[in-house]
Amino acid sequence: MSFVQKEYFAPAPATTRGQPVRLSADAKGEHFVYANGRAVVVRSLASPDKAWEYRGHTAATTVARMSPSGYYIASGDVSGKVRVWDVVGEEHLAKGEHQPLGARINDIAWDADSQRILAVGDGKEQFGHVFMYDSGNSVGTVMGHSKAANACAMRQRRPLRAVTCSDDGTCVFYHGAPYKFAAALREHTGFVHDVRYAPDDEHFVTVGADRRIFLYDGKTGALVRQVAAGCSDPHRGSIFAVAWSPDGKYLVTSSGDRTCKFWDVAGDALVATVVVGGGGAEPEHQQVGNLWAGDYIVSLSLSGAVNYLRMDSAAPVRVVVGHQKPITAAALAAGPPRTLYTASYDGRVCAWALGGGSSSGAALVAGPTGDTRVEDAAAAAGGGDVVALGSLDDALRFVRGGAVDGGATVGLAAAPRSVALTADGATAVAVLQDDSVVVVRGGRAAAAAAGLGGAPRAVAVAADGAVALGFQDCTVQMFTLAADGATLAPAGPARAPEGHSREITTLAFSPDGALLASGDVGGKIVVTRAASGEVVTTRWGSHTARIFTIGWSPDGAHAASGSLDGSVIVWSVATPQRKIVIRGAHPDGVAHVCYIDAETVASAGADGAVKMWTIRHHV
Question: Where would I find the WD repeats (predicted)?
Fold first, then answer.
């Protein structure tokens, strides 16, 4: 057996309210780069569903910039490290790791030769440093700031110049190389969020919390003017980012007032305004980052939505969404169309319409999702587009046709721990965190069983309606739904499958209901015959931490599992010793795995990403 990563559905850029976010593009205007978690994500501008990730950092990443040559990316993190790594090749070898600052890196700039790097941010002794990309040798000192530096820019032709801007309200102009203090620019009256050189390097521009835009001479640092100072429709919120058009004639600014504005530099006038989010007052539509690369103009919402803009359109022409936070639950709805629903701990639910094992991108599920962590999700195996979501706000919600059915939401006595649906989607069984079990049918929840004799931890429902409960004491018990559809009737005594010594965490029936796989806290999986409890195998034991999820292949001959150890393992029922181990599939944990078809496994995890794996099973 072997595997190949087929698709990578990237997480959205990480954002923090009140902080600008840096997006960058390559010199050709084909790809853009951003940070999320400990990863750096590289995506196609033309086809943002095509992406890949770099995971060389041990701390949360904050910014990444491609070199002018296109061969390297420099990325920074919250620990103050900057890693320089190779874009070419699958291994993305590190060219160097440097520690220019003692705290968060906020921005990075390259010189024209792709030799020198300017990194700015927070620190104990300094707020920036200029160094050689390979050796790390110092080639300049950043000084003149009393608070964290937010952004930086380097002139790409001689004479060499650089600019930094800071929360202290100043911009500092440097001569190089080596780079040294030349002047402090104090036109802004609040935090200065961004600074960018024009493509011809004749000017640079700064923006900030005072909602003003200043234009400076690129060689001398002298103030030219405030851009459109008398504009009748200025930004009404902090300006977090600015970008130049490739020809240097226009600027685009992104603001906390939920708009992006285009400015004619020579004409000193506002040209157009794009309103994001339909003009609503929701903070999620605040614009916190942008870029202008070739024909593509992109602005980033606080929600992580990537908005594609055009000067002649009053609203974004395309919006790309995804998860910013770890995915905690997922379920595959049979459809049509087949749809993978994923949910994260911030309550965001995304739908990925699948065709041929791939997706054209995510769509946000409409309706009241609760804005709180989704603990578990389950889909109706018999077809249709019905998914149950169990959330920490003590509610069970139902997604139908790509939207949350608000009228079907059922309040529970406690938060669901594990959720399962019958094949027709009409009945849900949920294990709650108060150690009770409820059956939800027709918009009502009823206690499923009394005197269970243990603390239930997981539930699964077979295609024929059989129900399995896994308990804290390592036992599994079978039940049937009573004729009233609201209670569970024991189908036999509790079983203690050989091989389990820790509490059961997840259960999964094979598609025909004949086999039951149970996973535990210690990383062990045991497969038994559902009807008799006879052990089929106890040799699925290569995980090193809690089992979160198990998904069966369509023929029931194989199963995939996901664990807190970050790995996905594909198992064989007939030959348990033969397995496929995908290590590091999702660092910090795999929340869900499922078979899309006989040769494709989907996984989702704490990195906020969804991945598709092509699996070649042993014959």
Answer: 54-95, 185-226, 232-273, 497-538, 540-581
323-449: what fold? Methylamine Dehydrogenase; Chain H (2.130.10)
Q: DSSP 3-state assignment of 284?
A: helix
pLDDT above 70 for 15: yes
Q: Of 502, 507, 511, give the one whose Cα is nearest residue 552.
A: 511
Q: Name the pairing type of β-strands 568-572 and 444-447.
A: unpaired
Dihedral (CA of 263, 265, 266, 268) sign: positive
Query: How far apart, in Å, are the Cα atoms of 564 and each of 97, 487, 585, 605?
Result: 28, 33, 11, 9
Phi, psi of 2 (to 5 degrees): -145, 170
Tokens of 308: 């594609």
Whether residue 416 is preceded by a cis peptide bond, meaning omega within 30 degrees of 0, is no
Q: Rounded to an integer, what is the distance from CA 155 to the centroid of its chain? A: 33
Q: How far apart are CA 150 and CA 20, in angstroms?
A: 8
CA torsion, points 112, 116, 120, 123, in degrees to nearest 10? 180
Angle at 16 between CA 28 and CA 170, to 5 degrees: 75
Whose CA is closest to 291, among 45, 91, 62? 45
Distance between CA atoms of residues 40 and 464, nearest Å: 45
- pLDDT surpasses 90 at 357: no
Residues 6+ apart with CB under 8 A from 377: 329, 330, 331, 341, 343, 387, 388, 389, 390, 419, 592
Residue 368 has pLDDT above 80, yes or no: yes
Domain range list for the chain: 76-320, 323-449
Can you tell me the mean pLDDT for 376-397? Answer: 93
What's the length of the chain? Answer: 619
Same fold, 76-320 and 323-449: yes
Please, what's the largest Cα pairwise distance for the chain?
A: 85
Question: What is the C-alpha to C-alpha distance for residues 496 and 449, in angstroms, rounded to an integer?
Answer: 20
d(C-alpha 3, C-alpha 593), whole Å? 14
Quickly count: other Cβ atoms within 10 Å of residue 76's Cβ.
Answer: 31
Q: What span, in angstroms and rounded, lies between the C-alpha atoms of 328 and 347?
A: 9
What per-residue confidence (pLDDT) applies to 359? Answer: 62
Class of domain 76-320: mainly beta
Q: Name the DSSP letter for residue 228.
A: T
* Alpha-carbon gap, residue 60 to 72, rounded angstroms: 20
Q: Is 79 exposed, middle or buried (0-12, 13-18, 19+ CB in 10 A)?
A: middle
Q: Decide: helix, strand or coil at residue 303.
A: coil
Residue 225: pLDDT above 80?
Answer: yes
